[in-house]
Amino acid sequence: MTAPSATSFDIREIPFSRRGSWLDISPVVALHTVREKLHLVSHKTGMHAIFVFEPLQNGAPVEAVVDATPTTLRWSTSEGEIEAVFENDSVLRVRGRSAELRIADATPELTPFTGTYLYTDPIDGAAVFTSYETGRRYRITAISGSLAIVGSEALGAGERSVTASGAEWEIAIEEFDAARAPYRATGTFDDAAAAVAAEFDHYVESIASWRSERTPGVSAACYVLWSATVSPSGFLERESIFMSKHWMDKVWSWDHCFNALALAPGLPQEALDQFQIVFDFQDASGALPDSVTHSEVLYNFVKPPIHGWAFRKLRSTLEAPLERQTLTDVYDSLVRWTRFWLDRRRVTGHVLPHYQHGNDSGWDNSTTFDHDRVIEAPDLAAFLLVQLEVLAELAAELDRHSEAASWNSEADAVRSALLDLWNGDAFVAKAPLSGRESKTSSLLNKLPIVAASHLPAGTIETLSARISEHVTEFGPATQLTDSEEYEADGYWRGPIWAPSTAIIEDGLRRAGQAELADLISERFRRLCERSGFAENFDALTGEGLRDRAYTWTASCYLTFAREAEERESTR
Predict the structure, then answer these.
(1) Angle 268-276/324-344 helices, nearest 10 degrees?
(2) For residues 80 and 57, is the Cβ–Cβ distance under 8 A?
(3) Cα separation values, 499 from 170, 182, 570, Å
(4) Rounded distance, CA 96 to CA 39, Å?
(5) What is the CA radius of gyration of the chain?
(6) Which of 79, 124, 233, 507 could make an S-S bridge to 450, C-beta 3.0–4.6 Å?
(7) HEC per residue, 537-552
(8) Which residues cross the membrane (predicted)?
């Protein structure tokens, strides 16, 4: 089997980076913005292009073929080549042979509040760029060869660039805060590449030792996860997996659950960190933030309470039992999160809590919200029901028996209210004040299958049949494809998404609908192997849409693949 570190990928689809780094190299420089040339991009204080890379031959721009693996990025020109490797999370090593590299400021105008200033460090002769956008410094040091610096100490508009040249040359590019000792290479470029290869291969073996020829997408999926991981910095005090090192460079408060599930088989502490990270930002009401990143925590929306479901699934995957203190910490966090929904999101006299907007559900523009944005939704009720059940189990395990009884009582009430949303053919959402019912053509209305153990057999049969109507050649479309509201690239109004697929598949399996669950798992895995790990996919063509390197898609693929391999091994 080929080493995972030898896996090649398209740099226009997946950025080149490494675990822990806040930097990447990509032509993607902003929301839906793709340049012709590759850029060095930083994700500190937001997504900001720092440098544009331009290969030269004899001083003139030249076309180059770009190849990338988890270890090395390579530009191949007609006469030479340039290679890059991340020596560590803040240092990029670049070397060239019979080709030069121009490294230019990506924001050519400097103002008192924006842009990048360049100066030549009098201590070691390095070129140093200071960026207003990231608040960091970027130092280019020649290890061998020479640097031609243009625009040193210049103000206003104008060129600021560094060109590395020589028959064979090598440089180091660093990102740091206010100061750092002059760069000194402690090993060779090849040493750095070998270390990255060993690290990535170990990562893949840790979380996907089960892989086989039946799971050809594993190495690429692992790279999407590994390369989108950042070290603790800014508000984030744990190692964190972003949704992407494209423009979705945040941790959202349900996305993280799917990444935790992918890590759980072989990296249990890292999985727990991913699960718990958003709870570090739980507010006084118990609410989780909508999203967290380096310099921003947003509370204007929340995300659905899938955390009880996710923790139960995560725990079942771990090889070793969790310590009692860990269980206590998770229980206390889930209690506060659950009380937020029960205490702050219920109308007086109502059993079910409500969303205030589609964003609260994670299904931003689902047709379920077409009539009303503020709704008591069936998916919310089902997630909460599962979470209440998990809380009752944890409370009993922690010898908090009166609390367990209270959670069970609350669960009984929510179950009854959830079943009141069943109209005999579908689950509906209702506006809490008017009672107006929602449309039912969205897959969101079928998510109560996640609470299958609480649903009558007849409801499960009908709900499963309605889910099957969403399933295309590639998986479950988020909107019925024959409905008038269906949009091929309509975000939650048609495309296939990983989280909805994972929740539906798991619910069907728990409901005893193994055949349909197997079909969905198989089709989604083949979709990823064909179209990569995009944010979402055209339900009818399978084309990857939006952000093309999305971690929860990679994580759901890994979870589905592992579970399929486990089923295969027991046959």
Answers:
(1) 20
(2) yes
(3) 43, 46, 26
(4) 17
(5) 25
(6) 507
(7) ECCCCCCEECCCECHH
(8) none
